[in-house]
Specification:
The protein has 15 helices and 18 strands. With about 375 residues, it is α/β, with parallel strands linked by helices.
Length: about 375
């Protein structure tokens, strides 16, 4: 039910197949983010048409509204949302720890103030498992303590060690919930340790000592550190992570991040940037970012991205898209969001093809050269 096989490799880059209860995921793969049970502004059919194989649901937001009890009453996220392909839920850790002024941390868990109604809530490793079990995603993530990207070594070590202690509690509660149940869900741990090699090694060693696991996530990156530092962490972990398990880089998903992550052995990505940028008129193309609001597009009759096969690019002109944003028509945000999601999915699919035919490294070098040619910041 939770099998993973490698279909091909080139250097550290990997092409694989992940079997989950609700379907097959071909990797490398980008997961669109359905924060509150929906990819922002888009119909599930549009997300599926863009090529999405798996979605991410946000435990923190779904717990606050509508509540996991409501989702469970509908039979879980798949039936509640009508998305019948695989779903992964995060643990809520990132959202809770981003509320630094509104939360209190102790060894048992985190107490925080709901941004929805101001009520006091408490999230522990056990509660994170119970909530995700009620949501009934294919993959549940362990509850972790995320240290900010530029935290000093001692603070990062404390967070990493607490994450390992919480992992043991997550596993115990998840096994209790799973015992005798017909619903199938797997639990993945999260490697923490910031940008410090010794802490990442200790985190991974502690995770593997508590294994086996059907997959391993890499957390605590793209949270303020420089991109070369993130790349260095991925390079270190690439040779140490279990080769026969999928690797998920959490919360990372700009176009160049996919290329660099895939080159360093990452299989799965997620990020809200595709739809967030789309809503603000920022589109990704092979030639870099396009500001759809720009006056220079006013009379452009060509597609947003001539290389793209999405509904936005095959039907509408750049000039029309700019008009939609200037006129504040919601269609514009939807179309560019669809394009950005499709762009990342196509990028992952192309990477897979190149890995399988042995040309990934050369193709990735050409991709970088074109993407950054007009001054896009890496």
């Amino acid at each position: 039910m939770f099998e993973f096989s490698l279909d091909g490799t080139e250097g550290e880059a990997r092409a694989g197949t992940l079997m989950l209860p609700h379907g097959v995921v071909k990797t490398p793969c980008f997961m669109p983010v359905g924060t509150r049970g929906a990819v922002r502004g888009l119909h599930p059919a549009e997300v599926e048409a863009a090529g999405a194989q798996i979605l991410l649901g946000n435990t923190y937001h779904l717990h606050l509204r509508p509540g996991e009890d409501v989702v469970a009453a509908f039979g879980g996220l798949h039936d509640f949302t009508t998305w019948q392909k695989p779903i992964l839920t995060d643990s809520g850790g990132f959202q809770v720890f981003s509320l630094a002024a509104l939360r209190k941390l102790d060894e048992d868990g985190v107490e925080f103030v709901s941004h929805v109604d101001g009520s006091m809530r408490r999230l522990t490793p056990e509660r994170a498992m119970e909530i995700q079990w009620a949501l009934a995603a294919d993959i549940a993530m362990a509850f972790d303590h995320l240290a900010p990207g530029k935290s000093p070594h001692d603070e990062t070590r404390d967070a990493m060690e607490r994450t390992l202690r919480w992992l043991a509690r997550c596993r115990q509660r998840h096994e209790e919930l799973s015992a005798g149940a017909t619903t199938r869900q797997t639990l993945w741990p999260i490697v923490q340790g910031g940008i410090y090699d010794d802490l990442r090694q200790a985190s991974l060693a502690g995770i593997l000592a508590q294994g086996p696991w059907t997959g391993v996530a890499i957390g605590g990156l793209s949270v303020g550190e420089a991109k070369p530092a993130m790349h260095a962490v991925l390079e270190q972990l690439a040779t140490e992570l279990p080769r026969d398990r999928p690797r998920y880089l959490m919360g990372v998903g700009f176009p160049d991040d996919l290329i660099e992550g895939i080159a360093r052995g990452v299989d799965l990505f997620d990020c809200v940037a595709a739809t967030r940028n789309g809503r603000h008129g920022s589109a990704w193309t092979a030639d870099g970012r396009v500001n759809v609001r720009g006056s220079g597009l006013r009379l452009e009759t060509g597609p947003l991205d001539p290389d793209c096969d999405c509904e936005c690019c095959t039907r509408f002109s750049r000039g029309y898209l700019r008009h939609l944003f200037v006129a504040e028509e919601q269609l514009g945000a939807r179309l560019v969001s669809i394009h950005n999601i499709r762009f990342l999915i196509r990028l992952a699919d192309s990477s897979r093809e190149r890995i399988l035919d042995g040309s990934f490294a050369a193709w990735a070098a050409q991709w970088r050269s074109r993407y950054f040619a007009k001054g896009n910041a890496p």
